[in-house]
């Protein structure tokens, strides 16, 4: 049996385009002689549709699209993902379903059993969990269908307080009892740089435990915060990965089921630091590109300070959108160092980006004049620093509004974590490109981009970070060094370690408590931050929901 | 048996204060001769604790607090709410539990069965659902415990696509089989102005169906977006409400269980429009007050435009925080009408609020000069309008940063819905006071506030709304009149009706499609809006989760 794996990029709510894309793939697979083609989870409507699932017309459009797609499956079968109505009077309105299309109609439906409701996932908000299991007979094979989390009843976790087994049932175990000779899993599994081989290991364990080949098809593409990386694969019954599809790009590939049993196991390639940076960079490119193109935009602006965050953001944006679609502002103040302006110009010229220099002295002075009745003769402080950042934010938005460029936010995750940024100032932007990238990784990725030639000025990479909002300011005046800061932040945010655990691990108590206090105190700022391209297992945004008003210990 | 109902206001994560408050109430009830005192859901840690539940030390602090509280229950029993660890190796880490404290220890635990995971609720994100039911024998009575949603297995819904029965089990039915003579329900049920007697009817139906008296204890207080209104009550076995506690305030009250069976049914008082406005106003006061005091702030600022939204916000803030804690800015531009400044001054003086006038002409001109290389000789447009709003936002934040006043956002729900506001401008603020109040209700509430005397200048209420960002601008230039707009918005947002349903109801197709398009197009703006005090069944914020990048039909 020849199986096509369709790893495609869907647009949420764009039924016309998704349907056309799916039908084209079906025709392509049919011409290639495939028996069945497998798409990914909720492929018909896009994933995650969020509260659009509560709108009757969204579900009606899905149903129409499913019928259209089914109509083309006359000589080939297809597995697609779609929400379907729960016919029972009790329980949630919908199931998250894998539909088997054959003979021009939906001939079998498998509902999703395990509904991820943690981190960025809200599936029990919409879906009733499945409780019954069946298999399909198709051209001499017995096939079991499952959906993404259905194989994740047992998963490794990174902190001692979290659970390995979030569910009380194992769908793979239930399906295995029905003696299938193939398990298909359709997925919408987002990328995260720090989860390494977690997904592969889950698939390997399932395959080995149940002695079943697995065809795993993941979607690819960015949907606001989430970036899906593809990486669809096929495993034989020994848990050996016999076929791997590319990361971060669409592809349709074929496998012959009868040939995979004796395939040699591929040596698992340990992810090198180089590959980690390459993948994270690819993820950001895809996330940025899809945010723009799926929203109907193609032009971006940002404030280029001469610092490393805006430099890296620009390098990524230029690659994603084309340098001709970018127009940046240099907005020096009296606190800007000469090298900053020169570094910013160097980068813009190297990348062939058009830029304008709008000094902010005059506007700053004029706002200070306006504020004289408030500020009086109070000493220079945070208010004056924020004022500069807000003038810059306002100039960038003026350009954005006047010329139709979307503003890219240039904050990194370390800053976002400790609130080192000005709300309505440098926190502005339609999208935060680096908001899930720690400062230490900003440095590493910048060096990685320069691996063959200097793209980001070495001077930008090597000089000590500064916000340049007061004379001779350095980040290190108010923050621990970034190696230490990021080590604490990663353990507190991604690994959810407590202060006492961190201190037991040997971190300085005073610094740990100060950093955690800063993270907690700045929930109100992050509440109003732009959407962040998520590349880790725990990004700020929809995946991390903390109360603003609370007493944090 | 004498039962104390403790309707209290908790602070999330403030274990010390919550514990002290609970213990004081226990002593008070003991002195009053009560047999048992009932607190509300998750009273020990505060509700909703959100992702704090994923932190080991948060759960450890809860456990310590529970032990301390239990230690005081030697002559009286108490029912408190807390997260407890799931001892099984499979399933979510925690249960949401009602704990029966007696003889100095936790003597019985009832886990929550129905975990609301819709709108603002995320309970399945954290908790494993209960599957077993038991009752307690106490001083000659058989008592069943349940938690909030446990009684909501059947609930009325406002749109035809939603479900009445979100769950496949009825905990009240299961408990009723065990023949209790009392059902206690501890709740954290937020206020919404458009749900009328929904909660009462749920309780009445449960009581009647199972012929059981119900003691229902709800919490009170604001927690960021959510406002809990209290209104705890007691029903006899005939479903008659025999005792009702106040709305929006803490109280400890007593009932004698043996006396309620023959109490006359209270006549249900239909909510008048006057009462609806009064309650909504009370809710906003409480939400604002708790946002400030629980965060450790007590001073507020806002931009007073002479329009009705900022006037109403100021009137509410002055009542909540005291006029001496407020300092507002009047920021006229060349487009401000004379009456606006006069109306703003009148209001500030009437409420005894200190204010400063900071004209924005100079700053506006200076920013236009700075932007000359971008704007060149392009015609006046949206960018110039937004620029004025952003200058004002920047001035307000400068005051906030310099003097420590929290900025209140003054946008209403109609504006927030259609994106009639400037991101990083008038959308600024720590908290949106009116973001869940439609413009038509802003008018009604302002008139209600003026019911005895003119507080908000009648001129502010009666003049046509205008943003005053260009000459002779009126809201009605670009939006349908507010009666029509709000009618469409309410049906689309709260009732989740589709465009086609609205058109079938008789609304003009072109207007309906335009309004819905505006709502959908502005998801990106609302993503960065401040937290909104929620007073309806569907507020913008955590309860409404729409993708930014999607094709909306």
**CATH architecture identity of the largest domain in chain A:** 4-Layer Sandwich
Uncertain stretches of chain A: none
Strand content of chain A: 15-25%
Chain pair sharing the greatest interface: A-B, 103 and 103 residues
Helix content of chain A: 25-40%
Largest sheet, strands/sense/barrel of chain A: 6 strands, mixed
* Quaternary structure of the protein: homodimer
Mean pLDDT of chain A: 96
What is the CATH topology descriptor of the largest domain in chain A? Nitrilase/N-carbamoyl-D-aminoacid amidohydrolase
CATH class designation of the largest domain in chain A: Alpha Beta
Gross morphology of chain A:
elongated
**CATH H level of the largest domain in chain A: which superfamily?**
Carbon-nitrogen hydrolase
Q: How large is the radius of gyration of chain A?
A: 26 Å
Give the number of DSSP strands of chain A. Answer: 19
Structure annotation, total helices of chain A: 17
Trace the largest sheet of chain A across and list its strands: 5-4-3-2-1-14
Structural class of chain A: alpha/beta
Structure characterization notes:
Two copies of one chain form a homodimer. With 553 residues, chain A is an alpha/beta fold. Chain A has three domains: 2-270, Carbon-nitrogen hydrolase (Nitrilase/N-carbamoyl-D-aminoacid amidohydrolase, 4-Layer Sandwich), CATH 3.60.110.10; 279-475, 3-Layer(aba) Sandwich (Rossmann fold); 480-521. Chain A is built from 17 helices and 19 strands. In chain A, the strands form five sheets. The first copy, chain A, has a six-stranded mixed sheet. A six-stranded mixed sheet of chain A has the order 6-7-8-9-12-13. In chain A, helix 5 crosses helix 6 (308-321) and helix 8 packs across helix 10. Chains A and B meet through helix 2, helix 5, helix 8, helix 9 and helix 10 of A and helix 2, helix 5, helix 8, helix 9 and helix 10 of B.
